[in-house]
Design goal:
about 210 residues, 10 helices, globular, single chain, alpha/beta
């Protein structure tokens, strides 16, 4: 196994769960929130600051100015002049590249496909789902009413979309931004996992990598 998989996902599509199950099958790491902890350790930012900016572009000059007083660990003048939101993005960007260089893994969200565009052994996926299926999943997971679940999905997806579109040169959720877009509602979580496993094995066979049985 020598493939890195990035997963962009709609909120409620089961993208993270799918990533974890594919990772379990191949015996590799699936990184989501764990990236934040590592980015904090390697960049010198406090973890809370990185979490506050996670997949949320911040354009408020005043907020960036105030938060700037809490940043440290970088000395380059060009870097110091950046808004804090840009610094946090670069910290995550660097961490994603380091993680990918260490070996095969699955990285969920955070413009990972954009960060790893030079990696030839990378498959970029986008997981989406039917609205009613996503709403039911979020209602169950967070014990919400249908209206609240719909509202939460809309808010989270807007955050992810604006973050991705702001920091990358591509468009979030658009087919030509990824290698494959999969509707998890068609085959369900486990069926989508099987499909991705097959895709990875075919990808490796095509590229001269023989997967372990």
């Amino acid at each position: 196994m020598n493939t890195i998989i990035t997963i962009g996902r709609q909120f409620g599509s089961g993208g993270r769960e799918i990533g974890e199950k594919v990772a379990e099958y191949f015996g590799i790491k699936c990184l989501d929130k764990e990236l934040l902890t590592r980015a904090a350790k390697e960049s010198g930012f406090c973890e809370e600051m990185i979490k506050n900016h996670d997949e949320r572009p911040t354009n408020s000059f005043l907020y960036n100015l105030v938060m700037d007083t809490y940043s440290f660990g970088y000395n380059a003048s060009s870097f110091m002049d950046m808004p804090i939101s840009h610094k946090v993005f670069l910290a995550q960007f660097d961490t994603i590249k380091k993680v990918a260089e260490e070996g095969p893994c699955i990285i969920v969200g955070r413009c990972a496909d954009y960060a790893l565009h030079d990696f030839k052994n990378c498959i970029n996926l986008f997981i989406y789902g039917d609205e009613e299926v996503k709403i039911k999943r979020i209602m169950r997971k967070y014990n919400l009413t249908e209206d609240k679940a719909r509202e939460m999905i809309t808010k989270k997806d807007k955050q992810r979309q604006s973050y991705y579109n702001y920091y990358s040169s591509k468009k979030w959720g658009r087919a030509d931004s990824y290698d494959f877009c999969l509707n998890s509602s068609v085959l369900g979580v486990d069926g989508t996992v099987k499909l991705i496993i097959q895709m990875v094995e075919d990808f490796e066979a095509l590229n001269g990598v023989t997967p372990e049985p």
